[in-house]
What does this fold into?
Amino acid sequence: MLRLFKLSFFSLLVSFLFSHCATEKSPVQLLRFDQDLFNKQSLQSANHYLKLQQKYGPFYETFAVKMLNISEEERPYAYKPSLDKFVNFPSIQQLKKEVDSVFPNLNNLEADLERSMDIYQDEFPKEKIPAFVTFISEFGFAHANLDTVVAIGLDMYLGANYGLYPALDFPEFMVEKLRKEYMLANTLKSLAIGKYEHQLRDKRFLAMMLFEGKMRYFIKTLAPQIPDSIIFGYSKNQLQWANENEAMIWAHLLESKMLFNQDPSVYMRYFNDGPFTIANGVPQSSAPAIGVYAGYKIIAQFMELNGRQSLKDLMENQSWDKILKESKYRPK
It folds into this structure.
């Protein structure tokens, strides 16, 4: 009897350990490059920039060369001459203070990313979780995507009331979206675009529409708590207009024979942000980027009717005509 108990206990222990290992999630890394770069104590060290170069690797190179346009001739010096000027420039130091006041910590973002990456690992079990890195670039970039890094420009999320945005000639419709509420959705979108932008080889409106729809479906799956207004970048009134006029949007796209148009100079007006969709036959009361909205609705219905498809299956699916046909999309 004792021997049987020992065997049973051993079996339970092995089963528990196996189950624990099988479900263990990789932790999310949220690295504060913006804080590391401006760290006053570290700046006193002669090796400050070299250590950052070693820690952040490809992102450090991207930040210096692509974002700040520093000459690669400075690479042997870890871009120290130009970065010294950057971190000590008065307007940059003021910007850093303003970023710190809006983001004293990133606990909420980190928790949101943890939840989203748990879902990501379930949906893409063979994919590695990227590192997430925050930076400031004086309003140059909201996001950057490398193979193993998704970078977030905190200075592009200082709020719709931040005074410098209008001074920089950012249009009102854009300023409204420069809020922390958009940060998670845009970060997940950046991750998705980095993985799948190669699919845009097909230059038809249909491919662009369904690609953009997949991007929003990806966000919605990984962060179901995000409101549709944020996912589409709509005000409440714009979202209401789109929902009430879904059938009209689809009828317009069909009647204008837009689906198979291959001229981006014509059809990108259906995807560009703005105060409304600036296209012939679309009223000024419309929501912007109605091509994105229609694409998401088609993708959502396709997935509803094809329940066996995983998110991974969907994201890898480039059979645009087949997706449209199998969605049976006919809004009323």
About this structure: Residues 1-22 have pLDDT under 50 and may be disordered. The CA atoms of residues 30 and 132 lie 5 Å apart. The longest strand covers residues 131-135.
